[in-house]
Design goal:
The complex is a heterotrimer of chains A (427), B (653) and C (410). With 427 residues, chain A is of the alpha/beta class. Chain A is 40% helix and 19% strand. Chain A starts with a helix and ends in a 7-residue tail after the last strand. Chain C has one domain. In chain C, helix 2 packs antiparallel against helix 8. In chain C, 52% of the residues are buried. The chains are: A alpha/beta (427), B alpha+beta (653), C mainly alpha (410).
Chain lengths: 427, 653, 410
């Protein structure tokens, strides 16, 4: 009798608790932390719209855990300190369950301490330089081994490039990526003097001398390839100068990591046909999932000429994985969702399946595309899914580090000394 | 004759129908099927056998197959795996059989798979096509063959090239063939004397291709020899360990890598070894807690080494002894000393010439950058230099001009016509904007320069944001007409794009226009009068308000035209003007306020300075801008009134 | 002249009282120490606003009182932030490194610890060695001295060069703007050793205070900012109230006459320029630990121009005007860009304030210069009945925006 009473009481209590919980948690709030003004607005506004579309879509499917989703949009205005402030606002004032956002590494580094302090959850959708693995961040963009390294491999094997010009805008992503590439190329037997590195400021427009320098590299009879981490507007002047100097992709190919469909729409691409870009997604991918995604996007945004791009796919995958993980966990509690994120699978838009690793990086295929005259990319190479590597294998200090939140509970584990260097991130 | 053709066609038709019926494939299809796997895999590393099989088949259709393949026109039917050339047609793609050259049907895109050779494979196919195309009656194809040869040649192609020279009807192509023949001779001819002769023929040539042919001949490798290098090795130079060219550590690393000496014990290795030999809180008698001192670590390690537990710790004298037993030399890959000597001599001559030409090229770049700065600053030279009005929104007038160009180009697709319309329109738009600004704001603020600065700054941020709201933050395309598209190429070192030349010419035109207006027109006379003494000018019957308005409008209008030019050469964004505003003010201040020649000199100085610093530090363009500004700040200390100072006016007035 | 300093400047007492009440109110309403009416992020915003008010006071000294329109003071502000940021990053990273290395079998050498810190801090920008400018980063005392010393020395050298060659007026403004641009471009370079575009981040985590939650820390910093503002305000009021104040106003209104009277105009200007740069450095050192990240974009010329905007909107030539301007504009700006302002639907077009706020700011700035040169604090004149002297021949006197001496009407 007593036991029955206990069970009954327990059931009643449980029912009351779940009732209270769902009442308190509805609607589930999804924070969107993308700049809507300032220099990054053009890239990030698209992602904000993508998130709104995905949330809308999910609500049509019946929401999540019996609740509707509500997107909370804030504008950090391309101002890095403001990102931290807005993230704190999202987590403490709006009490969001997850944040999708950021575009640049510096904005992510600005947000990191806040997210870690308040145990939030961030999905970061853009390719980045790696060397980071936070307990509270899932990186759905490409790590260097999912974009830069395969692109260089393509150069070495498919194009027979023997001499490299690494051109970049002077900030952290190109610096670190080029550092990794230099180290990788030296491992591959490319001597130091055959690697030319140049950094230019944001929005650089006077490219004549740099392009001439690159052309002059061919003087020792080796095939030259350009690896471009040039960012944003500066690409326009760069490609215009390439075209003006008549550099064909067959003589000196350029592979870009920051030039996608969106960026090409500001350019006349007829002179750029054949130059390359490496991403994990191209709009031209010929799969039914992609066709459906593009159709939905066009319908949502009400403009058939809008392009889709790689970070949009990253948000698409990240959001759906989060929804599935929360469904499996039965709650949106960050710690519970995190555990269900590990090993979470979701079909990507290029005909494969992406898997979230225990180091919080996605495993996904690498695509290389040639620029076409209509501003799209012709996919000429697609690899099997590559697991994202938080700590690169090609820098001596990072090669000994691994990240494994599931088994080691550590994002920066030194395999040599068998110790966890730090649990919180290094910002 | 007719009958024969008829018979061939008949045979082909029969063959095709047979192929369908009995799966008997044509000869080319058979070859393609045999290599189907690697063709579909489409990797440069593995594709060569397939190309060789097609090219070496001896079939007449080989050339067309390779050409179709190279042009991404080869498709594979998913159903039966056969390869076809495909052309876009209604309802899908028209399939053309390679062997018969006949259309075998139309297939939907979904049933086909396009073979997409990457650029590396296309180059290989191009090389394979060379022998077919060198004597092709079509000039375009012969030219393609030469381009392929320039990109990627091999020894086997030297003879076919030589054989094709004689019959070449086109003089341009013949010249290219002759030049290529010389280059291939340098690289591939078996006869030493012929090669040296070819090297000497090309010795004065600046071309990148010549250097590309010569440099591999003089490429060296660092090698270690026990004692002195043997006589059969072509030594470029001997290196002494410890010199700048070969530091001791590197030399020793070379030895240990070659297994000629024990490797040096690195601090990491010391630590790892110590960690392995901890016994009860001590390592070889040294307490573990004391091991935070590097000297103690070495001591403990030596103790371990003495016990034979770890490899010995190398002392400096042991390293010296090991190094002195060996000689280090840079060795040519090319075995023949005569060839390397000739190549070195030719390269030395070429490099001197290249150096001179690079200086010329740098000069052209500096001139071009200077002219861009001048163009951006010339409007300012009027409003700031002549009228003394600080217009921080000047950059935004440049931007408005550029956006005008963009809008016109959206309405008039023809690039030449649109530029012809855009330039006067940009002038009109910014002229009116300037007049409005002068009437509404600046007029009230004459004699209050600091407040003019702040008010126009307010205008500047408002305009920037307004254009962002209208056109978005993404850069907009402003494409130059085709005749401004290319570059003026003097040789492989010196070249400058036409658009830059056009900007240079435009800058000169504006200089002339400025001088004409200021010195030869009534407006110029009145402007100078009003600037010098508005009260007196008014007394003479000049309306100062009207003159100020027109002058300000003129300066703004010129900024608008500059905007079109700058947009053509770079990009159109709302921040375009802000990128130039500080430089423009610097140009005017450095040159000397109120003097157009000063502005010209200032622009030239800043342009060449920036290029000069870039040349000194080629890997970091940002540094050039920083140092240039610091230089200007210091320059103003010594000539506060600028290069050309007007008498009686200090920088502070 | 025998009256005490405070008696001669009643506005100082009023200001201090208002500031004190405000500080108490925020403390009691805060999450960390009070009732939790104000979120931690808003406490941080208020703390940052107070430091901005402090630099605005410095700007007012140099512009409103001495007539030097410096477009470089935000550079000094940023430098102060960088100096304290170096210690914060170094010390925080050192804690992490020492902790993780404590588990190693062999105790680390000092060099190994320094190398590991270097790898942690500079790994993100593809380097691992400490640049020379980090030589004192391990010492809080030295870095605190550098917070004032670096901006001070830079201002001293720059000011000496500029004032010596009699660069004044707009030329000086443009030159200071160029200096700011050069500094921000320099810091943008990775080679400068301050992590380039990334800057120094994670500054809100104060080493050795890991146990203190951000909600409490934010209040502490708020107090520190309020104290700094109070001290800075009193100092500025003291500087401008005596003979020194009369001389610098004289310089503003007519430099040549003051020079003819035998004063060393350059000396006065240099002193003021340097001291205000130091105040700006202190303000920056308090601002960035609250913002969490300092990077070169903060130093860009536009920031210094905004500073001038605040002072002009608040009202030049009176210290409370600068404070009002800075607080008002930066809070309104936060409100508009934060997306809290409701969009205005015009039917054919929706005005979204996120996009239109900057335009409004720019135009209001033009309006203030044209129609209300005294700025917001001109309202106080209406209230106290103070009127500017009527002068014919306007160019004889100071800028209409400047608050003139009492004696002008007497």
């Amino acid at each position: 009798m007593k036991s029955i009473n206990t069970v009954l009481a327990g059931t009643v209590a449980l029912a009351a608790m779940t009732g209270a919980a769902s009442a308190a948690d509805c609607p589930i709030k999804v924070g969107v932390l993308h700049s809507l003004s300032g220099t990054m607005a053009i890239s990030e506004t698209t992602l904000k719209d993508t998130m709104l579309m995905l949330v809308d879509e999910q609500n049509k499917k019946g929401g999540l855990l019996g609740c509707d989703l509500e997107a909370v949009v804030v504008d950090p205005a391309s101002d890095w300190p403001l990102f931290a402030e807005k993230a704190r606002e999202l987590l403490t004032v709006h009490n969001v369950d997850v944040i999708f956002g950021n575009w640049t590494s510096v904005s992510r580094k600005s947000v990191l301490p806040v997210i870690e302090e308040l145990n939030g959850l961030l999905f970061y959708p853009v390719q980045y330089e790696g060397e980071e693995s936070s307990k509270n961040v899932f990186y759905t963009g490409a790590a260097p081994n999912q974009q830069a390294i395969p692109a260089v491999d393509y150069y070495l094997e498919e194009l027979g490039v023997e001499k490299f010009a690494l051109l970049g805008t002077d900030y952290v992503y190109p610096r670190t990526t080029n550092n990794i590439l230099e180290s990788y190329l030296k491992m591959k037997g490319i001597p130091e003097e055959d690697i030319f590195v140049n950094y230019t400021p944001f929005g650089h427009s006077d490219w004549s001398k740099i392009v001439s320098d690159v052309v002059a590299l061919a003087a020792d009879g080796k095939k030259v390839g350009v690896v471009s981490t040039i960012n944003g507007d500066a690409n326009i002047g760069f490609y215009k100068e390439l075209a003006a100097q008549g550099i064909s992709a067959d003589d000196i190919p350029v592979v870009a990591f920051s030039v996608g469909e969106e960026e090409l729409s500001g350019l006349d691409t007829s002179n750029l046909v054949g130059h390359l870009a490496a991403w994990n997604y191209f709009m031209s991918a010929d799969t039914p999932e992609n066709a459906e995604f593009i159709a939905k996007w066009h319908e949502f945004i009400g403009d058939d000429t809008r392009v889709t791009n790689d970070p949009m796919e990253a948000h698409y995958i990240g959001f759906n994985m989060w929804v599935n993980a929360a469904t499996e966990a039965g709650t949106t509690d960050v710690d519970a969702v995190r555990e269900h994120m590990w090993g979470q699978e979701f079909p990507n838009l290029t005909g494969g399946t992406d898997v979230m690793g225990v180091n919080h990086h996605l495993s996904k295929p690498v695509l290389i595309g040639e620029i076409l005259a209509d501003g799209q990319f012709d996919i000429i190479s697609q690899t099997d899914p590559v697991p994202g590597d938080a700590w690169t294998d090609y820098l001596p200090e990072s090669a000994v580090l691994i990240s494994d939140w599931k088994n080691l509970g550590c994002g920066m584990y030194n395999t040599e000394t068998k110790t966890c260097v730090q649990i919180k991130s290094n910002y | 004759m007719l009958k024969r053709i008829f018979l061939t066609v008949l045979a082909a038709v029969l063959l095709a129908s047979q192929a369908k019926a009995q799966d008997a494939l044509g000869p080319m299809q058979t070859i393609l099927q045999a290599n189907a796997e690697i063709i579909v895999k489409s990797s440069r590393k593995t594709i060569q056998p397939a190309i060789d099989a097609v090219a070496g088949s001896g079939l007449p259709q080989a050339q067309s197959v390779l050409e179709a393949w190279q042009a991404k026109d080869m498709w594979r039917r998913k159903a039966d795996g056969l390869f076809f050339r495909a052309e876009k047609a209604d309802g899908g793609y028209r399939l053309i059989d390679f062997d018969s050259g006949e259309v075998v049907g139309v297939a939907e895109k979904g049933d086909l798979k396009q073979i997409k050779p990457n650029s590396g494979i296309r180059a290989l196919i191009g090389t394979a096509l060379v022998t077919f195309q060198l004597n092709d009656p079509d000039r375009v194809k012969r030219e393609e063959a030469l381009t392929s040869l320039e990109r990627d040649a091999n020894a086997a192609l030297l003879e076919p090239l030589r054989a094709s020279i004689e019959a070449e009807p086109d003089p341009d192509l013949k010249a290219r063939k002759l030049r290529l023949e010389r280059l291939l001779t340098i690289s591939y001819d078996p006869d030493e004397a012929t090669r040296i002769a070819a090297i000497e023929d090309m010795a004065g040539d600046l071309g990148v291709d010549v250097r590309a042919a010569l440099n591999p001949l003089v490429a060296t490798k660092l090698r270690v020899f026990e004692g002195t290098p043997p006589a059969d090795v072509n030594v470029a130079r001997l290196l002494k360990p410890g010199s700048d060219a070969l530091p001791r550590e590197e030399a020793y690393a070379l030895l240990s890598d070659a297994g000629l000496a024990p490797p040096r014990v690195t601090p990491e290795a010391v630590r790892a070894a110590l960690a392995e030999h901890i016994e009860g809180g001590t390592v070889a008698g040294v307490a573990v807690t004391a091991l935070s001192d590097p000297a103690k670590r070495v001591e403990a390690y030596r103790a371990l080494a003495d016990r034979g537990l770890v490899p010995p710790y190398l002392a400096e004298d042991e390293i010296s002894a090991a190094l002195s037993a060996y000689s280090f030399a840079e060795v040519y890959a090319e075995p023949s000393p005569a060839v390397t000597d000739a190549a070195e001599a030719a390269l030395a001559r070429i490099n001197t010439k290249v150096g001179l030409n690079q200086a010329l090229d740098l000069g052209l770049d500096a001139l071009s950058l200077g002219s861009i700065y001048f163009l951006a600053a010339i409007g300012l030279a009027i409003t700031f230099g002549v009228m003394g009005v600080i217009n921080m929104a000047h950059g935004e007038f440049i931007m408005m001009g550029a956006y005008t160009g963009y809008v016109v180009q959206q309405l008039i697709p023809n690039h030449t016509a649109s530029i012809a319309v855009a330039i006067p329109l940009a002038f009109l738009v910014t002229f009116s904007a300037g007049v409005v600004l002068e009437r509404l704001v600046i007029r009230h603020l004459y004699n209050r320069p600091l407040e003019t600065l702040l008010a126009t700054f307010g205008i500047s941020i408002a305009l920037q944001q307004l254009f962002k709201n209208i056109f978005g933050t993404q850069a907009r395309p402003l494409t130059s007409p085709d005749w401004l598209g290319g570059a003026w190429v003097l040789n492989d070192v010196v070249s400058i794009s036409y658009i830059r030349i056009a900007i240079f010419v435009l800058a000169l035109l504006f200089l002339g226009l400025f001088l004409f207006i200021m010195k030869r027109t009534r407006l110029g006379l009145e402007t100078r009068a009003v600037t010098q003494n508005p009260g007196m000018a008014a007394a003479m019957g000049i309306n100062p308000g009207r003159v100020n308005m027109l002058t300000f409008g003129l300066g703004s209008g010129i900024a608008g035209i500059a905007g079109v030019a700058i947009g053509l050469f770079a990009k159109v964004t709302s921040e375009l003007g802000a990128d130039y505003i500080v430089q423009s003010f610097m140009t005017v201040v450095v040159g000397g306020v109120g003097n157009i020649w000063g502005t010209l000199l200032g622009a030239g100085l800043i342009g060449s300075l920036q290029k000069g610093i870039e040349w000194l530090n080629p890997s970091n363009t940002l540094a050039a801008q920083t140092y240039m500004i610091i230089f200007i700040i210091i320059f103003i200390q010594f000539r506060p009134r600028g290069i050309i100072a007007l008498k009686g006016r200090a920088a502070g007035d | 002249m025998n009256r005490s300093f405070l008696a001669r400047n009643p506005s100082v007492l009023i200001f201090l009282a208002v500031l004190g009440l405000f500080t108490l109110a925020v403390t009691f309403a805060s999450e960390g120490l009070g009732m939790g009416l104000i979120s931690t992020s808003f406490v941080k915003t208020l703390g940052k606003t107070l430091t901005l008010a402090l630099i605005a006071v410095a700007m007012d000294l140099v512009w409103g009182y001495a007539g030097i329109l410096s477009l470089g003071h935000f550079a000094f502000f940023g430098l102060g932030g960088y100096m304290i940021g170096m210690w914060l990053m170094y010390e925080r990273t050192r804690q992490i490194v020492v902790e993780s290395m404590a588990n190693a079998a062999i105790p680390p050498t000092d060099q190994e610890i320094v190398d590991a810190i270097g790898t942690q801090i500079f790994g993100v920008v593809g380097s691992s060695d400490f640049p020379a400018i980090w030589a004192f980063a391990d010492s809080l005392a030295i870095q605190l001295i550098l917070v004032v010393a670096v901006p001070g020395v830079l201002a001293l050298v720059f000011g000496w060069l500029a004032f010596r060659s009699r660069v004044t007026g707009v030329y000086l403004s443009i030159l200071t703007q160029a200096m700011t641009l050069a500094l921000s471009l320099y810091l943008f370079q990775n080679d400068s050793g301050l992590r380039g575009n990334n800057g120094l981040s994670g500054l809100q985590n104060i080493p050795h205070l890991d146990q203190v939650p951000q909600s409490v820390l934010s209040v502490w910093f708020f107090w520190a900012s309020a104290l700094a503002l109070a001290l800075g305000y009193v100092f500025a009021a003291w500087v401008v109230s005596g003979k020194f104040g009369s001389v610098i106003r004289g310089i503003r209104d007519n430099e040549a006459r003051v020079r003819f009277l035998g004063y060393s105009v350059e000396g006065y200007k240099l002193f003021l320029f340097t001291v205000t740069a130091m105040i700006a450095g202190i303000a920056g050192a308090l601002y960035y630990p609250q913002a969490g990240i300092v990077n070169p974009a903060e130093i860009a010329p536009i920031a210094s121009i905004y500073l001038a905007v605040w002072v002009a909107i608040g009202g030049r030539g009176r210290l409370y005007g600068a404070v009002i301007g800075a607080v008002f504009v930066s809070l309104v700006s936060t409100w508009f860009t934060g997306g809290q302002a409701p969009d205005v639907n015009l039917g054919f077009y929706t005005i979204s304030w996120v996009d239109w706020w900057t335009i409004l700011l720019g135009l209001s700035f033009v309006a203030v210069t044209l129609f209300a040169p005294k700025g917001i604090s001109g309202i106080f004149d209406i209230w106290t009945g103070r009127r500017s002297p009527q002068r014919h021949g306007a160019d004889l006197g100071p800028d209409p925006g400047s608050l003139r001496e009492k004696e002008a009407e007497e």
